[in-house]
Specification:
The complex is a heterodimer of chains A (302) and B (449). Chain A is an all-alpha fold and 302 residues long. Chain A contains 13 helices and 2 strands. The chains are: A mainly alpha (302), B alpha/beta (449).
Chain lengths: 302, 449
């Protein structure tokens, strides 16, 4: 049951989940906005990848960076044109932004439906069906590529947030919006940048999904979207390392669940786990780390 | 202060009035267009879990027969968007082709009026959502006053939509529903030109029996099975199990798994299947899930002597999505463009002229459903739903495009015709009939390379 093959598959799957979920976590962490247009951005990212591959023959691994850049600016534009005005004009900005972003998602779906119809499109690269064998372990190339892209993006995000001036400003806004404003940080600009980063990550997730699944107006939504939200809640809404842990847990359940639970329970297992985690750790798994850290500080002080 | 309170009160009053107005408008919209259908409303839509047929509302009559209507209205609610849209477009175009054919001849001859009346097809998108399909049905019946319907596609949608249709007593023929749970509820107004799902897996298992007898597969053959968690999947499982029991010693069921309809990762399931080293792997899934799963089957290099995804795998869309990966897949043949009978070849020619889509089983069975429905209206000779329903129930026609060549309906409303088994043959992956021996166009390649 717990073969090395399965373990590797689980890690690759977790990589995919991280890319999908981190965009939601970044936007929520800084703006306290749940990006309901996330699935739409993923879908358009997948179509952008499909287009670049079909028309210009550009491999999705190469088109990932320009698509991310494009989606960054699209995200900034949406924040400036929709989210920011909604927050300015309404006291219930958060719920209004939810509705606005849901509307954006619907518009995105309609655009995709109009441009590409409902037919599933596929990106068939030279390595689509290839696998690497290492002993008994079989690693599909597309999954490995997806994991690699996700890993690089994840490390890049951590470096950006932890070790750059922009990252420090983003974290300051995330921790205390008013405090950051008093310290002279342009909170509006940082919010727009954060939204752009979230959208860029969604675009990247779309590129990766185009390598693995047929592209259609529903790609990135349904079960995958639900899993993204489960991961973000599991990890603790605004924590990027928490997202990685949540993704690993969910990937483990999805991979090994079939051996552990009866058929009817396998699909529900992630949500049962979510329920249990929320009961024990209402702020997600990352709150556990914060508690440990706090105790360590108290211990040092005492 | 008082003024402020008054202002607040008046503001709330205004909001309340607005809400009431919206609700009233909503009710008005939900209200039927004619008094005869007044008792059918969206809120009356019954639950789908019930085993018994719902008590129908008052008989819904057609408009009075004094003057012939300008058009005969036919309804269709189909996935134009959402996860089932790829297949849905085949059914939509199939219905349009059937209607166009009739209209090219001036419409349907209705004896009651002694004249030909053009057919108007009203199409709504159900967004691959069962709830929307129910609302569409109510709208078609209550507002558009359709006389009959071509029903939709996909079991989960059919489970709910069929109840709404039955309740409205609108005769309906589909080529897209095949789960027995839809047809075993005693409904009288639902008919299908697609053979019941148990026969899909049953035909593939019967083919395996012949392959075992011919020495192409070992005896017993180790079978791994995976089905989506739905009525459709359960039917598929039941059909396979029936054959396993029918042929003792021929099969050993080594894995029997269920997966989510929209599942995206199958590494665990495939690892479990690989661990029991099966000879054959049979799967029941929707089209999108089939593409995702088969891609992972190839990537994981499962060593199998034969693999079948039921009716999936022979589509040109499958070839486009999986390339050479579709070679040697076995499909239970509800229909194939390579079917040599005259009606099928005639349909292929008509379809190629009419549509950009390749002719598929969905388009053929959808067209047959539309053709039977329109033919039944003409046969009834009156624009009366019950008379049309009776005409469909008694429909029995030879030399049609379905395998076996006979279109008729059993008491439950579903066609009961023999199926074929096809295999996608290289180099172009075209599905070729390999079973039964009497109809086969090529020898099967079992075990597959």
């Amino acid at each position: 049951m717990f073969s090395m093959n399965l373990l590797v598959n689980m890690i690759l799957l977790a990589g995919l989940y991280v890319i999908q979920a981190s965009g939601i976590a970044v936007i929520y962490g800084i703006m306290r906005v749940i990006n309901l247009a996330h699935a739409g951005a993923i879908m358009l990212g997948a179509y952008a990848s499909y287009w670049l591959f079909t028309i210009f023959g550009i491999d999705p691994l190469l088109s990932a960076a320009p698509i991310m850049l494009l989606f960054f600016f699209v995200g900034v534009l949406i924040e400036k044109m929709i989210i920011s005005p909604v927050f300015r004009s309404r006291s219930d900005g958060i719920s209004a932004s939810l509705l606005a972003l849901f509307g954006v998602w619907l518009v995105m779906q309609s655009i995709a439906q109009e441009l590409w119809s409902a037919t599933e499109r596929t990106v068939l690269t030279g390595y689509t069906f290839d696998s690497i064998s290492i002993g008994t372990v079989i690693i599909p190339m597309t999954r490995l590529a997806a994991f690699g892209v996700g890993f690089v993006a994840f490390i890049g995000l951590i470096i950006l947030l932890q070790y750059t001036h922009l990252g420090r400003m983003i974290r300051a806004v995330a921790q205390d919006r008013e405090g950051a404003l008093l310290a002279g940080i342009d909170v509006k600009l940082i919010s727009a940048i954060a939204f752009g980063i979230g959208f860029a990550l969604a675009g990247l997730a779309g590129v990766v999904l185009s390598l693995l699944f047929p592209v259609s107006p529903t790609v990135g939504s349904g079960a995958l979207l639900v899993r993204s939200f489960v991961i973000v809640i599991l990890g603790g809404m605004e924590s990027i390392p928490g997202v990685a842990i949540g993704a690993l847990i969910l990937a483990a359940l999805d991979t090994f669940g079939i051996f552990l639970f009866p058929p009817g329970v396998v699909g529900a297992a992630p949500f049962l786990l979510l329920l249990v985690i929320l009961l024990i750790l209402p702020n997600g798994i990352s709150s556990l780390f914060r508690r440990v850290k706090l105790r360590e500080i108290q211990r040092v002080r005492s | 202060m008082k003024r402020k309170l008054l202002y607040k009160k008046s503001k709330y009053g205004f909001v309340l009035l607005l809400v009431i107005a919206i609700l009233a408008a909503g009710c008005a919209q939900a209200s039927p267009a004619t008094p005869s259908v007044e008792e059918v409303s969206p809120t009356d839509a019954p639950e789908t879990s019930g085993e018994e047929a719902p008590e129908p509302t008052e008989a819904v009559e057609a408009p009075p027969s004094s003057a012939a209507p300008e058009t005969i209205k036919i309804g269709l609610s189909i996935p134009q968007t959402g996860i089932e849209a790829t297949i849905g477009q085949h059914y939509e175009q199939a219905a349009r082709l059937a209607v166009q054919e009739v209209n090219d001849q001036g419409g349907l001859y209705i004896e009651e009026y002694d004249q030909r009346i053009p057919v108007e097809l009203i199409v709504y998108d159900d967004q691959s959502d069962p709830d929307v399909s129910v609302r569409n049905t109510e709208r078609l019946v209550n507002e558009d006053n359709v006389i009959a319907m071509v029903c939709g596609y996909k079991t989960v949608i059919g489970m709910q939509q069929s109840t709404a249709i039955e309740r409205s007593r609108v005769p309906c023929v589909t080529g897209g529903w095949a789960a027995t749970e839809i047809f075993n509820r005693g409904y009288k107004y639902i008919f299908s030109t697609a053979a019941a799902v148990p026969s899909w897996s049953g035909s593939v298992m019967s083919f395996f029996v012949d392959m075992i007898d011919a020495g192409n597969l070992p005896k017993p053959t180790k079978v791994a099975m995976a089905v989506e968690g739905s009525a459709h999947g359960e039917d598929f499982r039941a059909g396979a199990q029936r054959k396993i029991e029918e042929f003792p010693g021929y099969f050993e069921l080594v894995a029997d798994e269920t997966f989510e309809p929209e599942q995206s990762d199958f590494s665990g399931l495939l690892a479990k299947v690989a661990s029991v080293n099966p000879d054959v792997f049979i799967v029941d899934s929707g089209f999108a899930t089939f593409v995702t799963m088969h891609r992972q089957v190839i990537e994981q290099r499962l060593e199998l002597k034969a693999i079948s995804y039921g009716a999936r795998g022979g589509e040109s869309e499958a070839r486009e999505a999986l390339g050479e990966g579709t070679n040697y897949l076995l499909t239970s043949g509800l229909w194939s463009p390579s079917l040599p009978n005259e009606a099928s070849q005639e349909f292929v020619a008509k379809w190629s002229e009419f549509s950009d889509l390749d002719p598929q089983l969905y388009s053929a069975l959808g067209y047959e459903a539309g053709r039977v429905l329109l033919g039944s209206i003409e046969k009834a000779g009156v624009l009366d739903r019950d008379a049309i329903r009776d005409a469909i129930a008694s429909w029995d026609e030879d030399s049609t495009l379905v395998p076996g060549g006979r279109t008729f309906f059993t008491e439950t409303g579903i066609i009961d015709n023999p199926l074929m088994v096809m295999q996608n043959m290289p180099p172009d992956g075209a599905p070729i009939i390999v079973w039964p021996p009497s109809d086969k166009q090529a020898d099967p390649v079992i075990p597959m390379p």
